[in-house]
Amino acid sequence: MQQFRVSLSVLTMGLMAAGLTAPAFAETLKKPALDELATAWQGGKTASSFNAFLSQAEKANPALKPAVAAYRKKATLTGDDLTNIGRLLGLYNRLHNQKAVIASLGAMVALPTARNVQIPPHENPAIIDFGKLVEKTAKSFGLAYRNVDNRIFEVSLKGKGTEEFGILTHSDVVPAVLSEWVLDDGTKLDPFTMQRVGDRLYGRGTIDDKGSIAAVLYAMKTVKESGIPIQRTMRLMIETTEETGGDAMEYYRGKTKLPEYNIVLDSGYPAVVAEKGAGSLSVFFPAEKTDGTVTAITDMGAAAAVNAISQTASATLKGGDLAAVQAKLEAAKAAFLQKYEPQGKFAIAITRGADSVDIKITGISAHGSEPQNGVNPLPRLGLFLQESGVALADNQFLKAIKYIDDLYGTGYLGEKMGVGYKDDFMGPLTFSPNLIRTDADGRVVMAVNTRMPRGRTPEELKAQVEARINEWAAANKAKVEIKYDQGNWMARDPSGRWLATLLDIYGDTTGLEAKPVSAAGATTAKQMPNAISFGPGMPGKKYTGHNAKEYKEVPDLDADLQMFTEMLVRIGNLQQMQ
Length: 578
Description:
The protein is an alpha+beta fold.
């Protein structure tokens, strides 16, 4: 099929010039043509309105004239005319509103909406302020707003009919470790002050999930202002507890009827139709006293949340001959790095305090669902302490690092525990030991992020894992408590006109292969009827949500703006979803 192509040099000279047109044909706009129109807009005279932008487009390609004429007459748009007008509106939104969207995202990032264990999320001032920000934005855009008890913030673009289509995002974020937000050149970042460096927008929540919220709000605004009628109301639902279990969505489900069809803007493109089941496996080691004559691990820390692989892990050693301990650690450092760096680069720092030796391992942070994209510092810290040859007192910390070494090591596929398996479509089971801390009772908590594909039930996996841990504890004379919450996997039927429409939007906009995929990340799509995920992660790129130095790339935000706008127009007017 021939694609709409226009000479870049002609376009940049000004699309308003008479006679400078491409051959006419009935064809929907695709990436090359969209890119050329974008270049013309940015390089020449810019249109101040969508109508003016349409004039530029139809001058460039006369085949668009019937669609533009139908739009201007407020006629019912169908087929390729609907697609082209929706696609042009998406491009216009991307070019016209980019700066405003970035500013809106910055205001959202400034609200530290991580869960505060001291108060319920719906009483968290940052969450409440986020709702007020969304309300102000929605009302200024002429959109309907509803606050469901500070659990869900709703924004609706009203359609003519009775059907609704659901769009789910979330406003809460995972915590950030400030010391890890430092760029390679030494630039220090504030996780809750968005900072642009090149094409990267750094800040907690920029990609997970506040970028999606800002983009879809401006997509709704743009569609409303265009006057394009939609038959189906588009209901945006902003969740406030997605990162910590989704109890706000459960509350909402008891209060509100959900749309029959839904998408979640919290995973990846092209369209995610299957998700692994997310779980958290915590093992508690009770406190044990040591007499101070033998060097002991007295503190350890890694990760602010179990669903994030931290950039750093640290341990404090006290007691015994600390000078000798430091010397032994320094002597072991080079060989340890040589042994384990083939699996991924990391660094070891050993410092002497007044009454301690402190060790810090710096790895590469990643989302807990994608351990293959990181270098987890916690198991490497445990292994270094054991392989260094330093004699350590047998306390709760030593038992915890032996547990990590014996049942996980530097692997993350459940191989050392003997529970690994994989599904051909959804991929392998992952067990990533991410978090270690001391709780209020003095116990060491060692937490593992689990992602379970199709092939087993949560009950089967839990029974296997708990039996293996209890077997290890008995062999090592360790008293442990196990808490294991394992969610189930989700797989949707990858069919229907609405899914085909989303794939068409993605493929034509990006020029990339468009087919249903699976994801390791778990979203609240599991809690919604007929729900799949559509963005914002781009294939082939590391997803930086939950990472230290989380960022959203501006070109990807542009693509979201363009695709979300077209999605509202086309899904909003789809005659049949299946």
